[in-house]
Specification:
By secondary structure, the protein is an alpha/beta fold. The chain is about 50% helix and about 10% strand.
Length: about 270
Amino acid sequence: MLKTEMRNPKTMHLDRMTTEEMLRIIQEENQNAVKAVDGCLEAVARAVDAVTESLRKGGRLIYVGAGTSGRLGVLDASEACPTFGVPEGTIVGVMAGGVEALHRAGEPEEDSAAFGVRDVKALDLVANDCVVGVSAAGGAEYVLAAVEYAKSLGCTTVGLTCNAEAPLANLADIAIVTDTGAEVVTGSTRMKAGTAHKLVLNMLSTCSMVHLGNVYENMMVNLRPTNEKLRERMVNIVAEIRKVGREEARSLLDQNGWNIRAIARSTVS
C-alpha cells in the first residue's frame, strides 16, 4: 500500500479529539512535511538546474498535475509573472479538467492518459521545455501520460511525488520524493503531501529565477509597474538599492523606463 494511503496511528481517534488536540497533531504533521523536503534537496537542486537550463535556452517550465497537485502547479505558474516579471507562458500550469477543475473536483480526467497527452500536445512542446509532473500518489494516468509524451520529444522531465516506488518516480528523468507518510485524515493528500509539494514548487521557480538574474541580492528586480502596489514596491526597492529617498528613487525609475535591473547594474558598476 502507498504510504499516502495508509492510516496514521497518531490520528486513529481523531473524531474524539478536542479542537486543540486536533490542531496540535495537524501542526506536528505539518512540521513533518517540512522535514520531508529536507530529505530530497539534492534532487530538488538537480531539478532547479534543469529548469534553469531550459529557461536559458528559451524553453518553458511546465507543471502538469491532477487534483490538489494540479492546482498547486497552476498557482505557482500564475504567480511567476507578477513576482519575477517573466513573459506570460514562461511558466505554465496544466491540470486535469482544465480551468473548471480549479474550483471543482475533476477525478474522471485524472484517470485519462489520452487527456494528459492532449493537453500537453496543445502547448506545442519543444525539447528545451522542462515538464514537471506533480502527483502525490504518483500514479495519476493523466500525469504519467503527459510526462511520457514529453520525454518522447526530448524534454527534461521531473516527477514530484510522495511515494518512492510510484510509477512517476520511475518514469521521470529526475525524481523528487517528499516522503510525508500517512495523512492526518487517511488519503487526504491536500494536507501534508500538498504542503510539501508547495514548498518544492516554490523552490523550483524561485531558485531558477534567481539564477536567471531576476533577483538582485534578495530583491525582486524584474517587476513590471502594472498596478499601484507594484509601483510602490519598485520605488522602495530602488530606494534601498541606491540608498536614496523615495522621490529620487521614483525619478531614477522614470529615467530608466521603470527598469530596476538597469538601475541595479549601474549601481554595481
